[in-house]
Amino acid sequence: MSATTSETNYHAGPDAVSAKTSRYRRVSKGRGNFELWSWVFMRGSGVLLLVLVFGHLFVNLMLGEGIHGVDFAFVAGKWASPFWQTWDLLMLWLAEVHGFNGVRTIINDYTEKDSTRWVLKGLLVASAVLVLVLGTLVIFTFDPCVDPSSTLSVCTGR
Amino acid sequence: MAQAANGTLYRGREGMWTWVAHRISGVLIFLFLFAHVLDTALVRVSPDAYNEVMSAYKNPVVGLAEAGLVAAVIFHALNGLRIIAVDFWAKGPRYQRQMFWAVAIGFVVLFAPFAIRHLTVVFTH
Predict the structure, then answer these.
(1) A34-156 sits in which CATH class?
(2) Which CATH class is domain B3-124?
(3) Which residues of A53-73 are buried (b: 16+ CB within 10 A; e: fewer)?
(4) In chain A, which residues have their Cβ closer than 8 Å to the Cβ of B63?
(5) Does A150 touch chain B (CB under 8 A)?
């Protein structure tokens, strides 16, 4: 390494700290702290998701009739409450972005060709946009009385 | 490869295999999330469309797959806490193996009651 420091430093940018004082290059490559914040986000969102997802599974699969109680009326009952709307919206966004970031890391780790990497990342971005847009719209535009002949109590009173 | 008196420090054994399992369980959960948001979106189509798809979730074969999915979620969550401890706790790296066994015990404690409850509902309804 020291043999090359007196010659052209091929990697360091114009702001590089002298290669003579350090054998490591601590110069920004222009991406800022993106990967650091991505790392922080995975841990922060992970802890929140533990609470949100365990709560979701407990209420939907353990209480009442478990999976057999889950139907349209069950969803209507939950989303009548802003509490569960907020819970599900937060869970949707945190889980999708956490999963997106995890799969992005896996694609970066295992793809060798640029073309493969960009195709997989394109599919990943498309799927994440679909899930976030569709999921958010469904939570905000949910109508328990979408069926005019509904017998749910919130609809018969109208 | 880093060497310790009793072999490698990290590769192989609990450290590497939990890393592999964390990736596999994460991808599995991410794929399910995609399907789960699409099936839930059917509530905007009609109650019948949603109820019909939900009846598939009550089928015993799918019920077993759900138990597998919940197992993946519990492992990913507990091992995620272990990763956070390795990163932020000064003694985390030294105790990563012991923490794997804590994850294993926590997994059994959480998954056993869930599996009993969920499979009872799925198979006796």
Answers:
(1) mainly alpha
(2) mainly alpha
(3) beebbeebbeeeebbbebbbb
(4) 67
(5) yes
